[in-house]
Amino acid sequence: MNALTGSGRARPGTGIKVTTPHMGNLHLLLEDLFGRLGVEYIKPPLSSTKTLQIGVKHSPEFACLPLKINLGNFIQALEKGANTIAMAGGHGPCRFGYYGIVEERILRDLGYDFRFVMLEPFGDGPWTFYKTFESLAPGLSIPSLWKILKVSFAKGRAIDRLGRRSLQVRAYEVNRGDTTRALKEAEKILAQAGTTEEIREAEAAAVAVIEGVEQDPERDVLKVGIVGEFFLLLEPFSNFDLEEALGHMGVYLERCVWVTDWIAPRKDNKIFGYPKKLIEEKAAPFLSQNVGGEGRETIGNTVMFAERGFDGVIQLLPFGCMPENIASSILPKVQQVHDIPVQTLAFDEQTGKAGMVTRVEAFMDLLWARRNGRLISVPRRGKKPEAACGGCQRAGTA
To answer: Over 196-235, what HEC string results?
Structure first.
């Protein structure tokens, strides 16, 4: 049996064709999960300029970029035959908790006929969590759901580990693009695994594919951490494939948010490797309150990257994102205290790739200047910058 299809068919008589928004490699996990549930999964086309244009056309002007892309995903999936939309819920103060409600109303105003299912956080209660899945797969028992989630989530963790390793290998690849091709092949290997044991074996084989990429271990690379709003971090289309572009510049990357870390009930950050409690402790001297989204995590992770000796940090956020705007206003203080450059990049539908690349290249020049001693440190409050080039210093500002 192919693990992607579970029973291979939707449950008799349900007629449910469920879809979800794209967000990085989330669709790989959902293909496995819905297949095991016996629910037909309609995957939207990968997010593209067309997706964004559709979403922008029907969204409020000042809505966040992720909402506009999500809406485009839903419209494209409904046109492919989906009749059920599943969307994650949430609680404030971030506007994400309103996404599902707003998107549903827009789609109904456009005349689409569908069923809408909101998957609320696990913390709202296990029974509510179970009933959401049971509504998609009638007759599903709690033990069966737990078993399915456990196996599918194990595969999701493995997929994230492959992605994490690819960010590191790409900085050393000899032939440009080999790591990206190897990652796609590795994901295909893992996708066919069914049982927990098969997942372990497939992951080992998939890792070997990525490690097989020809590398130059002597290459001098920059180490950069990526922080910010989860959708901008996880969805390559939303940030112009920034991670791949940086890897091709010879940058060793670590990202602080991964799909399974984000949706895990305990939020223990197994993929990133540092528990949420520790990250909050690191943020506390600068931001001790939850401001929604990943605002506090952005501060804490920046501190941790600095303490681990990274050359710099890049913050990604949708234009107008309240939690990340709060974080970006605090980051200059973090830079002063921990002597680490931070580049803030905000995205909306007006953002151009060429401008983003120019800013990132300038930031990399800044980091190389610091590495080579031409720029000694991030200027602390009350001090003038020690730099060989004023342009290098300006490149590090948000």
So the answer is: HHHHHHHHHHHHHHHHCCCECCCCCCEEEEEEECHHHHHC
- State the average pLDDT over residues 192-217: 97
* DSSP secondary structure code for residue 377 in this structure: -
pTM: 0.89
Within 13 Å and on the Cβ side, how many CA atoms surround 202?
Answer: 22
Count of other CB atoms within 10 angstroms of residue 289: 10
Confirm if 192 and 278 have CB atoms less than 8 A apart. no
What are the boundaries of each domain within the chain?
Answer: 17-140, 154-217, 221-395
Tokens at 212, concatenated: 């097989």
> 225 forms bridges with which residues in the sheet?
254, 313
- Reading the block at residue 292, the tokens are 């929604």
Query: CA–CA separation, 45 vs 343, rounded Å?
Result: 31
Element (H, E) at 18: strand 17-19
Instruction: Please state, in angstroms and rounded to a whole number, the distance separating the CA atoms of residues 279 and 326.
Output: 17
Q: Alpha-carbon distance 35 to 7, whole Å? A: 7
Phi, psi for 225 (deg, rounded to 5): -100, 145
Dump pLDDT digits (tens) for 379-388.
444 444 444 4
When the candidates are 2.115.10.20, 3.40.50.11900, 3.30.70.270, 3.40.50.300, the CATH number that belongs to 221-395 is 3.40.50.11900
